[in-house]
Amino acid sequence: MPTDTSPRTPTGRASLAERVRVPDTALTREAAELVRDTTSELIYHHSCRVFWFGALQGQRRDLTFDPELLYVGALFHDLGLGRSFRSSGRRFEVDSADEARRFLRTHGVPEDSVRRVWTAIALHTTPGIPSFMEPEVALVTAGVEYDVLGIGYEDLSPADRAEVVALHPRPDFKRRILGAFTDGILPKPETTFGNVKADVLEHYVPGFERGDFVRTILDSPWPE
What we know:
By secondary structure, this protein is an all-alpha fold. It has helices at 16-19, 26-38, 41-60, 67-76, 92-106, 111-122, 135-149, 158-167, 173-185, 197-204, 213-218. Helix content is 56%, strand content 0%. Helix 3 (41-60) packs across helix 7 (135-149).
């Protein structure tokens, strides 16, 4: 059972911990330990905020979701940016999703739940699709978009934002997360074709040339 509890605020508003609780299970404890041990403090705290903001958006949208799956999806979503994955030749989202799948399978999680987490992570940088899928898929992306891009910023109260950031601080976050993105994908720039991470390399890597979808069609080996 969750251990996160706190009294109501002086204004009578239910506290953040009363409305959103980090699921306290062996699965989530081991997930948090693994991610904290294998990523930077920047990525760890960002991933925790993705859970909180995703859960708050889920409540706001009146979605029913599995908090364990949302938590694991949020914590693992950027794992593939790490050094051990930079020579994989695959999109970091896929590396992250595969690590989550391995972790969940070792804990005997049902395959449909594993699929949801894998999909949530794999699609978290593909806007316009996750919101039409299962709640856990939609809310990982919602949490990422809230924390990184500020999408839906006014959907949540200043008090809720402040509580989440107090739990998981974001000092100089904009600059530092862009640096983490650049470092994580620079060794495999071809994986940015057709996705938002091409913008990162275009801004921060001199000489980078993004893939051109139209040019790819016109230059294909087809004669017509």
